[in-house]
Give the backbone structure.
Amino acid sequence: MSQKRSRIKINTDLAKIRQAGKNPQEVQKELFEFFTKRGFEYEVHVGYLHQEEITREKAQQIADELKECGLAKFVHDFYVYDDNTITDVYGNVIVDKDNNLYKIKYAFVTFDNNTFSGSNTKLIITDNNDLIYEKDNAQVMGLFNKKVKDISFDEKVVGKAGKLIITFKDNYKIKLDAACNKYFCINEIEE
């Protein structure tokens, strides 16, 4: 299984993007291309993932390259994380009711389900067995009202749909068609 080492979460400055007469989606696409050309992969609510550790020097190099290509003026700030914390689409770190950081244990995308927000919903199982899911087209993260007891997933290929069964502490079960995230899968996976 691939193991990520570091990730970067970008916060863009929408006002500056619009002032420059640019389309925000085009700027996001340019940022996506910038990072993927440098060996990063993108995951919603996680950010840009890299298999190598991002040192202070590497982060400064990325900032310098963003300036050189003209994208830095649209970036409000960016954060480098090494601890599996979860962020929302605005770059805010997700915390529980006691203000403790949620950390990813497993991540899935679901297909054609009615349990959550419909198809292509991202699910995150945290290290303390909470289930977080997307609401309102990824603008808000929701917390499922039951603790996870067990998870089974029958697929071993990245992005290929399989059967995901989540069992909660009260033995309530949810069965979903889902695909596993490359970096946070329950199984050893093949690419």
